[in-house]
Model the fold of this input.
Amino acid sequence: MGFFLAILGLFAAPQSTLASPTAKQMVEKVQRYYDATRDLHAKFSQELSSAIGGPPRKASGEVWLKKPGKMRWDYQKPEDDRKVMIADGSSLWVYEAEDAQAFKTPLRSSTLPAQVSFLLGEGKLTNDFDAEIVHPPGIGQPGQVVLKMVPKTGTAAYRYLLFVVDPKSGQVVETVIYDQQGGTNTLRFSDLEQNRKIDDAKFKFTPPRGVKVVSPP
Done:
């Protein structure tokens, strides 16, 4: 499972030349954008790379997010590994159609990736991370800003995150999570739509007939 979050405008520029943004200004702009986001829809592509090498695992699909605590990830490719991950506000479901099974976990006890939980509006970036602007090769496009987010409290789940940010809107268009073993989990978003009043029915899941439901004891 994978799951999930800038700048320009409010800083002075001497002699009509725009000043470079600071990491603090960038983080504050990202925070404002997601504070104002009630729901979000986008296409996504995901790439998982292991520290031990080998070709990366790739997937793609659509994602819907809605506060508080609702999300739906429809993995549409690869076609032989389609799955759906749904959080309805209280439970997290992962439905694997090929295996005819669904996993159900209380949302409060699930471990969502930091790049996903932020998009759901959990926590404040300035409270949880130390940030700096970086320029890693091969990440981001010209004009975008890359933030390196290091958790203030260490976690076994990951070492740090990268947020690739649209500096005009504060929108996170790509995230990269670096795990403790040296692997990476990259999510890229496109065709983003904000505050479209997504129906709550999108986040409801009923296991199809014959599907085995697995829950923690």
Summary: The helical segments are 23-35, 114-117, 125-128. Residues 1-18 have pLDDT under 50 and may be disordered.
